[in-house]
What does this fold into?
Amino acid sequence: MTVEEAWAIGLFEGEGCIFVEKRCYSAVLRVKTTDFDVAKRLQKVWGGRVSEATMSPSNKKQPYDWVLQNKPVVRGILERILPHLSMRRACKASDAIDRIDRC
It folds into this structure.
């Protein structure tokens, strides 16, 4: 594991989200941040796309979304980072891998 991958895992553990789409057996990885450079760095490590997120009235800075939806890539990343995640997030990652495999 590289330093960049370790950084990405730490960021994802703290700020990331695993969204499981039940109807089509896929999963989406997402990190929302107000630091554009952080979103771009994550994109450089794992791919995906970075876009401006909707600002709420309470936001002072523009938020950005990093999103990864490619099933094989999502599955590969989840499999690699699973041993490094907290129990709660590891359970969500395992569930996402199972749903992807059902496709």
User: Anything to note?
Assistant: The mean pLDDT is 91. The radius of gyration is 14 Å. The first helix runs from residue 3 to 15.
